[in-house]
Specification:
With 209 residues, the chain is α/β, with parallel strands linked by helices. The protein has eight helices and ten strands. It has a domain at 3-107 and 117-138 and 190-203: NagB/RpiA/CoA transferase-like (Rossmann fold), CATH 3.40.50.10420. A hairpin with a 4-residue loop joins strand 5 (102-104) and strand 6. The protein is globular and about 40 Å long. The two termini are 18 Å apart.
Length: 209
Amino acid sequence: MNEVVIKRNELLAQTVIKGLKSRNMKGHYAASKEEALKIAMDLIPKGSSISMGGCMSAREIGLTDALKNGEYDFIDRDAYEDGRVAMLKAYDADFFLASANAMTQDGVIVNIDGNSNRVSAIAQGPKHVLSIVGMNKICDDVDGAMKRARNVAAPINAQRFGLSTPCSKTGTCMDCKSPDTICCQFLITRYSRHEDRIHVILVNDNLGF
């Protein structure tokens, strides 16, 4: 990554972290995927129960594999014949791993979901939420974050899952009511009532979609 971009991201991350603090959330900055993994592992005590949504960013920094192979109770949805059982277990987990479809410079987190298990767990249930967020997802404001979530993240995810939505064919949001739509629930996290529940690791890299 260009040195100028690295420096800009470092400075912007500090602005985001201040915004998160004002919203009763805790921000961390990682200069690399490796550093992000170390921060995450330091935050999660051994023996913790852990669940997650479809968090590509956690996979990209190696966190998912580290937890699966470590001394943790990792609730792996793929290991359950009935995925609903795993989703319900997530609400009582010690940690829920997530990312963000977009974030604002002042610390507001935006997520869109289809089945809503991810956004509902972020909002309430698990004792802690740990979000891994690449600096590519930082936007100026809520309007910009919503546009990114709908016009960047949603079309890519629809294509990734092989869904027949208008955005998967056009590459941009069509505000559809398709049976396959993944834009069913919108969650804007502007404040955490419970101190220390939500942690965000900002990674100086392009992660997720």
